[in-house]
Amino acid sequence: MTENLTQYIRLIPKAELHLHIEGSLEPELMFEMAKKNGVKIKYRSIEELQSAYNFNNLQEFLDLYYAGADVLLTEKNFYDLTMAYLKKAHEDNVLHTEIFFDPQTHTSRGVKFEAVVNGITRALEDGKKQMDISSQLIMCFLRHLDEKSAMETLDFALNHKDKIIAVGLDSSELGNPPNKFVNVFKRAQKEGFLTVAHAGEEGPASYVWEAIELLNVMRVDHGVRSIDDKKLVEELAKRQIPLTVYPLSNLKLKVVSDLKDHPLKKMLNKNLMVSINSDDPSYFGGYVNQNYLEVANALNLTKDDILTLAKNSFESSFLSNSEKQRFLNKVEVMNQKLR
Ligand code: ADE
Ligand code: ZN
């Protein structure tokens, strides 16, 4: 790839719309928190832990991801975790980020919902002041748990509507289709939350149909399996429903066996509203620019493709129309400068 395209990718302003804050926990910070909090990690060193970052499927990754999250206990831990991510995002010219968090991962260990949400929110506020990063917070329900547990989590969130813009659905996809969560999504929408859901990561295209038809989500996370269903592709393109795609995550979780086989370019050609994000960067080997760089290299993407992806990231966000326009103007100014 040319140095010129590399620079273009690094400098073009971007939004990141699918980032699990727990998935940005770097091994160094994990060990530091474990030591301070007296939590045992089953790996003796950072190197030993990293050598375990080798997954055959989503579940193998999730097992390690939940074990890693055990070190997060205090509000300050959530603040430090979020601040560390924001610094990385800032280096990658991310101007706006919409962050996922999984409260059930923490409340099930006795951590207070408030410690989680307040720690993250305080960091987001400081990120705005110190780095001018704009942000939103999205609360995900764990789909391997039942709808009752999701309802209880939604109860907690009702006291924090000022901090949480949307609800989402993540964790083990196969065998946990969107239809399991119809009632809790209905209630969340009634309460004024926006909605997203992971679908079509490992699960079939029919899960994407369920996410858009039964849960009425505004955005689909991953959605790469949509490409298997011509009618679905037509529907997603017609309604311009955003798909937040993560090439390195798809590679690491064996959704694709080689980045050269990633459907991103096909999805762009079919006029789908796709954007590039980093999902769980600490576990999958790269923050957002790394995702852009590796997939651009594998698929021979052009500056025009990168420009479309960067614009899509803001178009797909939960920003107001005027905010979107303000960021899109910044993208255009940088584009002109770099051509
Ligand atoms: N939780 C964190 N990362 C995830 C992913 N890629 N898919 C589903 N659930 C997740
Ligand atoms: Zn995800």
Give a description of the structure.
By secondary structure, the chain is of the alpha/beta class. It is globular. The chain has an 8-stranded parallel β-sheet. The chain has 17 helices and 8 strands. The mean pLDDT is 97. It has a single domain (3-338), classed as Metal-dependent hydrolases (TIM Barrel). The site of zinc ion has 6 residues, from strand 1.
Estimate nothing, just give the exact number of structural domains. Answer: 1
Distance between the termini: 16 Å
- Rounded mean pLDDT is 97
Major sheet strand order: 1-2-3-4-5-6-7-8
Number of helices: 17
Say how many strands there are.
8
Q: Helical content, roughly?
A: 40-55%
Q: What are the secondary-structure elements, in order, as H or E? A: HEHHHHEHHEHEHEHEHEHHEHHHH
Rounded to the nearest angstrom, the radius of gyration is 19 Å
Look at the structure and name the CATH superfamily: Metal-dependent hydrolases
Report the sheet with the most strands, covering strand number, pairing sense and barrel closure: 8 strands, parallel
Q: In the CATH classification, which architecture applies?
A: Alpha-Beta Barrel
Present as ligands are: adenine, zinc ion
Globally, the shape reads: globular
Q: Which spans have pLDDT < 50 for at least 5 consecutive residues?
A: none
| Percent strand | 5-15%
Structural classification: alpha/beta
CATH class annotation: Alpha Beta
Here the CATH topology equals TIM Barrel
